[in-house]
User: Which sequence fits this backbone?
């Protein structure tokens, strides 16, 4: 139990990951309102927009308007998602407002990358080289990599530890060619294959190979294990997690087949509060943001604490 | 990791706990259909009905018809819930069809017991004595106790380990006066106060005090931690869990304020399948029963694997 971290960093993914999957177009102002509400909760990183092909993701045709429109708060890192040089160039127009984390985008599954980014391993490596160079030309070091399908893939099956380590090694190599040293890697369970045990195995193996590397964990709740997987990470002292307010992102309750959203941010913050792990986030304010998210999408979202309430108020009542 | 159990027993609570909370009356035949469907999954214990005050729980006015109507399958234990002698007498009419587990009903919180069972500690002790005697007169040993509010209570706050142990000790004493030795205790997180860490603390303390006692864990998902709490129990080798098909029981998505259902059975079985823990349950058949439950209640239920699917089929596809 003593390996629990004292504090963790939460990277809020709801605005970016959650709103693109909704069937109705979400008004630009609603996206901005949600980002601004999240900025007030104490969360220190928010992914705010996708700079991707508008034909493939029409819900993010307004990425520029959203990024230009939110109210930046000191101490909060606002980050974009991009999948290729064109998207990165669009995002770099806002480099005074954005932080370029998860800069090197890899996939432990080549079949997934071919489907998602239209790139095989070689093409992706070249693309990442170009992007690291482009970032460097803009004064930004690509010190952080994101590994998609880190635990398993619907098109490739289970991902071995060897395959995961090899993918991270390739990310280190890409950075190194530009004299950049990776400091952080995000293990993304893109298709919800992780279990608490495979989380522990992966974290253990990555740490053994690169002891100083900071690990971020990103889980989806498609098979109900998101919070258990996060707890498994906490047990090993992992101190950085992606999550999504109200569980935004993929909505099984609206009849979207398959993928569910990320681990719900309120539920994760509640867990941390109860375990004595500092998140810097005010849970009651976060629950308000979760309710705003539900109003914006217009249907119930899967978060639990936004309905069940925290225990703090109950404790106060019985005192 | 090595403390994970090789096999666990799952006690399905969906038919009893899930159907009483639904706003519309559930037809008797639908309850029977769900029980019969669950009987085909490999689950070895199903709680099938509540013999409680019909004025307080009108949804179980048909307890006799349900218990008389399902098709018993060899190897499956069917259990009733009762809260007082009158309910127990009603259930005992069906003693050839029912197994009387969780026979001694205690609460670690007196304020909760007063609200839920209209009994203070002294009155409840007398009631439990009477029931243990009544069971014994029917040839049934009350070897199993259920502790409500084992981790916390909305009306009493956090439950200390000392209070939990004292409550279990009282259950042992009640059994002992009738020459019965408790073999099993169920720690029920009735109001969803447990966290993975308090689960570990409670399991550790109960084991230290009564090393041979089998522990069952019962979690609600009101604050999203159900499956993480179950995983914490598995990590300590706990081998008995309550759960509810499709997450039946309290439905946050139908606007019922507050309490959510138990840990979802399919999600728990999926976790166990992935961890190599035997449950005896066929996950695909269980998912069919979950879908039947959703049809019966007529609204979405919170289970995840019933939507996201297991990984077995995906693995077969990529081979």
Assistant:
């Amino acid at each position: 139990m003593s390996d629990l971290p004292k504090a963790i960093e939460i990277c809020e993914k709801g605005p970016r990951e959650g709103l693109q999957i909704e069937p109705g177009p979400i008004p630009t102002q609603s996206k901005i309102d949600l980002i601004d509400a999240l900025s007030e909760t104490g969360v220190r990183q928010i992914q705010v927009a996708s700079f991707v092909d508008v034909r493939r993701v029409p819900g993010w045709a307004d990425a520029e308007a959203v990024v230009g429109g939110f109210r930046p708060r000191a101490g909060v890192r606002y980050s974009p998602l991009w999948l290729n040089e064109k998207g990165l160039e669009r995002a770099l127009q806002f480099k005074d407002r954005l932080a370029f984390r998860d800069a090197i985008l890899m996939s432990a599954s080549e079949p997934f990358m071919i489907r998602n980014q239209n790139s095989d391993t070689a093409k992706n490596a070249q693309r990442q080289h170009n992007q690291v160079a482009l970032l460097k030309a803009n004064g930004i070091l690509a010190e952080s990599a994101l590994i998609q399908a880190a635990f398993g893939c619907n098109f490739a099956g289970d991902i071995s530890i060897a395959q995961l380590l090899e993918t991270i090694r390739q990310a280190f190599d890409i950075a190194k060619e530009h004299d950049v040293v990776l400091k952080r890697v995000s293990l993304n369970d893109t298709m919800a294959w992780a279990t608490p045990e495979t989380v522990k195995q992966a974290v253990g193996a990555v740490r053994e190979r690169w002891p100083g590397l900071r690990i971020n964990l990103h889980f989806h709740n498609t098979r109900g294990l998101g919070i258990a997987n996060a707890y498994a990470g906490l047990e090993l002292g992992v101190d950085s997690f992606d999550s999504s307010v109200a569980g935004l992102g993929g909505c099984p309750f609206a009849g979207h087949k398959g993928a569910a959203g990320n681990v719900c941010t309120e539920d994760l913050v509640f867990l941390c509060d109860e375990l004595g792990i500092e998140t810097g986030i005010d849970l009651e304010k976060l629950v308000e943001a979760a309710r705003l998210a539900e109003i914006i999408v217009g249907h119930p979202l899967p978060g639990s604490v936004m309905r069940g309430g925290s225990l703090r108020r109950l404790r106060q009542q019985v005192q």
Remarks:
- Strands of chain B lie at 9-12, 45-51, 77-82, 104-107, 144-148, 152-153, 157-158, 184-189, 214-219, 240-243.
- The radius of gyration of chain B is 19 Å.
